[in-house]
Automatic annotation (TrEMBL):
It comes from the Bacteria. InterPro entries: UCP032025 (IPR008320). It comes from Planktomarina temperata RCA23. Pfam families: DUF1489. This is DUF1489 domain-containing protein. The lineage of its organism: Bacteria, Pseudomonadati, Pseudomonadota, Alphaproteobacteria, Rhodobacterales.
Length: 132
């Protein structure tokens, strides 16, 4: 799944295809995390959009998902809240597995209703030169 913005991610996650039976967002991946219990003890999935980590979601549980090909996969079930983080340049990676807490970008203060979101490209560009 690729997206152009946090709003695009939010829209995708609101679709029935991207939700569990209980209505929570999920991301299905081929590999089951080896440190699953550790991840569930306060871990998050960090979303890279347009070359920068822009937001995260708290992990709730890991569900088994069997694909139409019969292969067992992991459905990473998350809290619906998308938490904006300081834009951090990053190439695609398995963030739910390998991002150490000291490497995690800090959460941003909640936006005011009158604030406009910066486009993902601008956030990535500003982060790459150390402004965001």
């Amino acid at each position: 799944m690729g997206t152009e913005s946090i709003e695009g991610l939010r829209a995708w996650q609101s679709s029935p295809m991207a939700q569990t039976r209980d209505g929570l967002p999920r991301h299905v991946t081929r590999m089951w995390p080896k440190r699953g219990e550790e991840l569930l003890a306060g871990g998050s999935i960090y979303w890279i959009i347009k070359g920068a980590i822009l937001c995260r979601q708290k992990l709730i549980r890991l569900d088994e998902a069997i694909g139409s090909d019969g292969i067992r996969r992991c459905a990473i079930v998350t809290d619906p809240e998308l938490i904006a983080v300081a834009a951090t340049p990053k190439r695609a990676f398995q963030g739910w597995r390998y991002l150490q807490p000291n490497d995690a970008p800090p959460d941003l203060a909640k936006a005011r209703p009158s604030d406009d979101a910066l486009p993902a490209e601008m956030q990535a560009a500003l982060a790459s030169i150390g402004i965001l």
